């Protein structure tokens, strides 16, 4: 149980184009999903937290107009990198926190396999 | 805000030797603590978690960790390293749903 998928697993795009990454919780409902960015040989940096049906909360220094997050349902969140540039090339990982009855099991996150974005 | 510090960005052990990866945390409230493993170009896999029950936590693949409040530590150990343990390991602390990761420790296992 608690499987999270990401699509695509890797993508190459030209500078200036937009790229959408999907994050799905396959066997549970997630009111909250998280988006992380990981540079080579570095740790995960939280970009934003998204709650179903509301606007995402972005970490300081993350451009919300560049990294558009939509959490339209309890099983799907999307990250759109708009007008991508080479410096946006990175490994993007999403995670989801499950809902248990009326108590949000916030403290455990289930991670997707990641999406490798390369911007030429 | 809570944080974790992983001592040693790179640890190298021989196959069959003890694995010890260090993690110290900082939190103003009782934390939840996690260890994750990451293989190249993959997401994170949960090894084990501390959720205020037993202080000695056993995880997958023979790993375990002990929560020591007095030392604010949550070190990861495995009695005998296997070649397949070579990977990046992350310690994480979560308070109220806000999870913060350590910088990671790359484990190399020599034959």
Walk me through the structure.
The complex is a heterodimer of chains A (120) and B (111). Helices cover 0% and strands 56% of the residues of chain A. Chain A is mostly beta strands and 120 residues long. In chain A, strands 2, 4, 5, 6, 9, 10, 11 and 12 form an eight-stranded mixed beta sheet that branches. In chain A, strand 9 and strand 10 form a beta hairpin. With 111 residues, chain B is mainly β. Helix content of chain B is 0%, strand content 59%. Chain B contains no helices and eleven strands. Chain B has strands at residues 3-7, 10-14, 19-26, 32-38, 44-50, 56-58, 64-68, 73-78, 87-95, 98-101, 105-110. In chain B, strands 2, 4, 5, 9, 10 and 11 form a six-stranded mixed beta sheet that branches. In chain B, strands 1-3-8-7-6 form a five-stranded antiparallel beta sheet, with no helix packed on it. Classes of the chains: A mainly beta (120), B mainly beta (111).
Radius of gyration of chain B: 13 Å
Helical percent range of chain B? under 10%
Helical element count of chain B?
A: 0
- Average pLDDT figure of chain B: 93
Distance between the termini of chain A: 37 Å
Q: Outline of chain A, from the CA principal axes?
A: globular
Q: SSE order of chain B in H/E notation?
A: EEEEEEEEEEE
| Global morphology of chain B | globular
Number of helices of chain A: 0
Give the strand content of chain B.
over 45%
* Helix percentage range of chain A: under 10%
| Element order of chain A: H for helix, E for strand | EEEEEEEEEEEE
N-to-C terminal Cα separation of chain B, in Å? 41 Å
Q: Estimate the mean pLDDT confidence of chain A.
A: 89
Question: Could you give a short account of the major beta sheet of chain B?
Answer: 6 strands, mixed
SS class of chain A: mainly beta
* Count of individual beta strands of chain A: 12
* Low-confidence blocks of residues of chain B: none
Task: Please describe the biggest sheet of chain A, giving its number of strands, its sense, and whether it closes into a barrel.
Answer: 8 strands, mixed
């Amino acid at each position: 149980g608690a499987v999270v998928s990401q699509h695509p697993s890797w993508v190459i795009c030209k500078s200036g184009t937009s790229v959408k990454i999907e994050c799905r919780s396959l066997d549970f409902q997630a009111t909250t999903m998280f988006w992380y960015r990981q540079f080579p040989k570095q740790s995960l940096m939280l970009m934003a937290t998204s709650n179903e049906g509301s606007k995402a909360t972005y970490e300081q220094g993350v451009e919300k107009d560049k990294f558009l997050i939509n959490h339209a349902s309890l099983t799907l969140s999307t990250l759109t990198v708009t007008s991508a540039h080479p410096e946006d090339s990175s490994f993007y990982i999403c995670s989801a926190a499950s809902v248990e009855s009326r108590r949000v099991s916030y403290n455990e996150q289930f991670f997707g396999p990641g999406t490798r974005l390369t911007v030429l | 805000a809570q944080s974790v510090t992983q001592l040693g960005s790179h640890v190298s052990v021989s196959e069959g030797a003890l694995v010890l990866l260090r993690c110290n945390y900082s939190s103003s409230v009782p934390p939840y603590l996690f260890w994750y493993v990451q293989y190249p170009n993959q997401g994170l896999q949960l090894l084990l978690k501390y959720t205020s029950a037993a202080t000695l936590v056993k995880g997958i693949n023979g790993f375990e960790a002990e929560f020591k409040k007095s030392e604010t530590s949550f070190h990861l150990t495995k009695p005998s390293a296997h070649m397949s343990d070579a990977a990046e390991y992350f310690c994480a602390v979560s308070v109220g749903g806000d999870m913060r990761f350590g910088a990671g420790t790359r484990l190399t296992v020599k034959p």
